[in-house]
Write a structure and sequence with these properties.
4-stranded antiparallel beta sheet; SH3 type barrels; elongated; two-stranded antiparallel ribbon
Length: 177
């Protein structure tokens, strides 16, 4: 009888160890994927900034002989950003607590609140919160922090949709500032 109980206890411990190992492995894979996404987004942003700097420098050096950049494929969408830039990275619980010390579970900002922007181009402006993303700790403020995004052709094919290739939308703001 004792041998059966001993085997049961050993099997339970082994299952618990396996579960801990699996959880650690899943956590590491999740963090690796997260780092890869962050690296890709940062590389993309850095590349766009470098090309914009080079173009600005070339425009300054060449003056009136500078090439027109708003022709060809970029004729309608020159100066826009890709819609992927609007979506930030989901934060871990530790990062959420660092951004919002009042707690990551219950936010002190909800849709409909009036807020003032403290940083950026719209500094000092007051607006109404449209939405609050708990996982990213970002708010979307009505009419503030507007950016132009390029709309792909496949999204403009529906008959009732707006056929403009560029739309202005609110970019979410981090509540860290």
């Amino acid at each position: 009888m004792q041998a059966v109980i001993r085997r049961t206890v050993l099997a339970e411990r082994q299952a618990a160890r396996r579960l801990v190992k699996r959880r650690i492995k899943n956590h590491h894979e999740e963090m690796k994927t997260r780092r890869e996404h962050e690296r890709f987004a940062q590389k993309n942003l850095t590349g766009d900034i470098k090309t914009a700097r080079a173009a600005r420098r070339e425009d300054y050096d060449l003056g009136p002989l500078a090439p027109r950049r708003d022709v060809g494929l970029k004729k309608d969408t020159y100066g826009t950003i890709h819609s992927h830039r609007l979506h930030g990275q989901k934060l871990t619980m530790e990062e959420r607590l660092a951004v919002n010390p009042s707690g990551g579970r219950y936010a002190n900002i909800v849709a409909g609140d009036r807020v003032v922007v403290l940083e950026g181009a719209d500094k000092g402006r007051i607006g109404k919160v449209q939405s609050f993303d708990k996982e990213k700790q970002q708010i979307t403020v009505e009419g503030l922090n507007m950016v132009d995004i390029a709309v792909p052709k496949w999204m403009m094919t529906a008959p009732e949709s707006d056929n403009r290739p560029v739309r202005s939308v609110e970019k979410p703001l981090s509540i860290a500032s």
